[in-house]
Amino acid sequence: MQRPMSRLCVISTRQRQEALVQRLQQLGVLHIEALPPDQTLHRLHNPHERQKLEQLLLKAKGLSDLLPGAGRPPTKIKIEEISHAQAEIEALEERVRRLVVERRHLQERIQAAQQMRELTKALEELLQALPLGPDHTRIAGLGEMRHVRPNEIQQTLQERLAGKCTLAYRVLPPERVVLLVHVVHEYADAVRSYLEAKGLRPLAFPAHIPATLPLADAITQINRDLTEGPHRLRELEHELQELGHEQGPRVLALRVALENRLAQLEALERFGYTDYALVISGWIPQDEYARFEQTLLREFPGIVVRHDPTPAPPEEIPVALQNNRWSRPYELLVSLMGVPKYGTIDPVPFVSFFFPLFFGIIVGDMGYGAVMVLLAQVLKRKFAHSPIVQQIAQILTHCAISTIFFGVIFAELFGFVLKYPHFPRDKETDMLLLFCVVLGATQIMLGFLLGAINALRERHNKHALAKLAAIGALLGLGLVVGVFVGQLPEALRVPSFALLAGAMLLLVMSEGLMGILELVGYVSNIISYARLMGFGIVGLKIAELINEAGHAVHNIFLAVMIGIVAHSANLGLALFESTIQSARLHYVEFFQKFLVLGGRKYEPFQEIEI
Prior knowledge:
Blueprint: E1 5-13, H1 17-27, E2 31-33, H2 47-66, H3 85-115, H4 117-129, E3 136-144, H5 150-160, E4 165-172, E5 176-184, H6 188-197, E6 201-202, H7 215-268, E7 272-273, E8 277-285, H8 286-299, E9 304-307, E10 318-319, H9 331-335, H10 348-363, H11 366-382, H12 387-410, E11 412-413, E12 416-417, H13 429-457, H14 461-484, H15 493-511, H16 513-527, H17 531-553, H18 556-590, E13 600-601
Parallel strand pairs: 10-13
Antiparallel strand pairs: 1-8, 1-9, 2-8, 3-5, 3-6, 4-5, 7-8, 11-12
């Protein structure tokens, strides 16, 4: 439901603005409106302090992201301490930057060395096989076997440079060849040109190894990176971990303090100022007004807090929702559409009832519901810091409860139909279809009733009449169909026709002939709820096919593996389809009957919690 809002005005002296803005942030209930400057009021701007704090905040955020294992800070940092934080953050930033840069470079060296492990091993074997003479030059090359003929190269060099050249090579996976040549100095350039012409390129070592370094020394450096690098990397990780435990809480506290201070500066820029006073205008929930006023009058003697009776259009009044613990997570689903207009009906309580109901009808399996409960608990624990994931996990829990409930009614457990008195939905399709359609008609007519209430609140009597007439027409049409198919007594024939005719007359009076045409669309909306039955039976049949496939294998281990994998995939499909279809019925069929968007979200000026 929506909380009634009140506009208020606060007047205080400028000398107390810092203490006042801090207290307003601590109270966390005032939605501050920016006062436009005029001849009597002006705005306050402090771009230099804001720029300084934003730069510090960026550094603090970077540090908290880089420091692992940072726990919660024991105490909050006062705003007054922020002025001393710059030197502290910059010193810590330099220390962390040095460690992180060294870690990154070391990781790159280790990765490069691992990629060259086979090559360096082959080069070591070649170096041992070919001792280097004092008047010889060492040349190494690497190429692809499909382009290089090492036997041909060896034969050519031995024929043309007999006694002046020795050569050895190794074949490396995948289809590469590394070749080492020792040749007399005066023939070195010619041999290099010959090898390049034959498809051999010079060896390329990592960037941290100088190109002028001898081959043996380069190999030694790579081996050192492989042996000593991981140990040094662990040392760096440990040092960062210790630094995170030591300084992380302090950095997090500084980060939160900076964010709160920036929010205070933004609030100060929304105030109106005279030479000696400041004026604050905003909105507050009516049930918070008395406590808010008493607190300010007690802590700031002489301050003026007044209710502003100036009327405001609903579009300008911020909307604060207040729902119970069960319904609150579904505010996330409604927020995807926008913010309801102030003074209209909040759809969240209705979504919190119908959404899990539709979900459970579609899935309707006790086993799948139990797995969903476990999945929801995993999400809650793994993402305890994420409010959005917590809301999703709570919705999933509600849907799991509904799924288990209908699973008991349908007697379904991972696609197996248990033998006890139950409702077999794959056999009683007519009854299930009727139930889904009646459920859809109930929600559609509820939507029209809520729409009529919204219209009456906004004094749109004609629209309210049209929505009430739509309810009468749908109800009359349902009774007429029930009488014709023999499901309702014949005595209802005349009253049902009278209700239908009267409702259609009211539709024409309020909406014109378009009202009759829209009635056809309303019937289509109701029939759309048959998807609850269709998707549910499809999911059941897929689960049964999975069980039949496992039974046909005649191998219990393989059957279990097939069941786990296939049922997991079917559950994933069921989660996706049930969510999409349940949401669609709300967004397309239900909300269009009453939901009025265009409201402003209530955003109170409050402290950011750690």
